[in-house]
Amino acid sequence: MDKPLVVVPDRVHPIIFERLEPQFRVMGADAFKADPTAALAEAAAVIPRSYKMPKAVLEACPKLKVIARHGAGVDSVDMATATRLGIVVANVPGGNGKAVAEATVALMLGAIWRTPLAHDFVKTNQFERRWELNFEQLSDRTLGLVGLGNIGARVAHICGRGFDMKVLGYDPYVDRARMAALGVEKVDDLAALLRMSDVVSLHVPLTPETQHLIGEKELRLMKAGAVLVNAARGKLVDGRALCRALEEGWIGGAGLDVFEVEPPAPDDPLLRTPNLVMTPHSASLSIEADKNVGLACVDIVEDVFAGRQPATLVNREVWPSRRS
Fold it and tell me: Please, what's the largest Cα pairwise distance for the chain?
């Protein structure tokens, strides 16, 4: 009997293949892209990273038992359809948390210190223009975290202890005692957090409720010199409103690892705004994070095929009626 097929449609750490190949047939990104339809028709498991799995894709997977999401977010999977079809969906929350937290702080520093502009001054023989930078440092300023999960908590630790920042937190799902244990002062109102913060950093999943969580109204509440950082999901921020905010000076700068449309169009006016630091959705791409998340995905696949419920099962209601 053929071994079950595990499809890995994106680039991942090779340890996934090393761990799975003794028990499964494993198809990597190149083979998958050559004939996605045939691959999905035979797939018993999929480990998607950036690959999206909407209703049409899921319905083209008659043998699919488990989706082991290579990361925390599951907004790229049609959860209602997966559950209806009996497909187990599990994720890896926190596996890349340290990498994303470090990248988040790097974006803060890049925007505050105006690193792209300073780099260009040296590269274009304009060294004496350094006097124009006039940046403010992170130390002793106020950080506002929207979302206090694994990554937000890590950012709080780095910035609170490393930069002596006052850290505020807005998260309806985290109580005051838990925030206090993290060195964070709980703020019950998002508007109040935006008004008080010198840096605002987003750490929430994308849901219908959080889409465009930060729009024109919210950006106008922020301080004129404040910086917005988003290494979570692009659609948390209204890109058009952010573009105006940077062009017209409502805020002082922004650091983005994610965008509403990825990759952004070359003519997107947001790309030409002043004091914007950008990275290509790469915050989670450290070697260590890749390995950790990859191993966790292997554990999910192995658990399901052994009849064990994964610890990070997202659609828990599917387990009793999952595909056999």
Answer: 71
Among the listed residues 49, 70, 141, 233, the single catalytic one is 233
Q: Per-10-residue mean pLDDT for the chain, 324 residues long?
A: 92 96 96 96 96 97 97 92 98 90 97 93 95 89 96 97 97 96 97 98 94 98 97 97 97 97 95 95 92 96 97 96 92
Reduced to 3 states (helix: H, G, I; strand: E, B; else coil), residue 267 is: coil
Q: Which residues contact 139 (CB under 8 A, 6 or more apart)?
A: 163, 164, 165
Domains of the chain: 5-95+287-321 (3.40.50.720), 97-278 (3.40.50.720)
* Chain centroid, CA 319 distance in Å: 27
Strand partners, 230: 202, 256
Is 316 marked active-site?
no
First to last CA, the chain: 16
Q: Is 302 a catalytic residue?
A: no
Q: Please say if 209 is a catalytic residue.
A: no
Q: d(Cα 214, Cα 203) in Å, to the nearest integer?
A: 12
DSSP-based three-state secondary structure for 235: helix
One of 25, 84, 281, 323 is an active-site residue; which one? 281
Helix (H, G, I), strand (E, B) or coil at 183: coil
